[in-house]
């Protein structure tokens, strides 16, 4: 957690990042919770704070770009409901470059 801002300041920034690589693959960043044997599974929440002026905050989940091959995969999977309905997934693809197609939604 970053420090709170004063009455006219801006609160801090948190950056979770793997290092870059000049030759080979860069690292990975994983977040998660453990499984529950008798109880509910954990949760990971990414939330954006509210503001009193201007537009709302923004959440971006972006797969990697490739200059010579297919862009990275973005996969979001809802939770399974073994006795009832599984969770919903809402996602859209962004525009493509000049010589490609917008990504497919499955």
Shape: extended
Would you identify the regions where 5 or more consecutive residues have pLDDT less than 50?
A: none
Helix content: under 10%
Mean pLDDT: 79
List the helices and strands and how they pair.
Elements lengths: L106
Please provide a written account of the structure.
With 106 residues, this protein is largely without helices or strands. Helix content is 0%, strand content 0%. The protein has no helix or strand. The two termini are 36 Å apart. The model has no long low-confidence stretch (mean pLDDT 79).
In short:
By secondary structure, the chain is low in regular secondary structure.
List keywords for this structure.
extended, little secondary structure
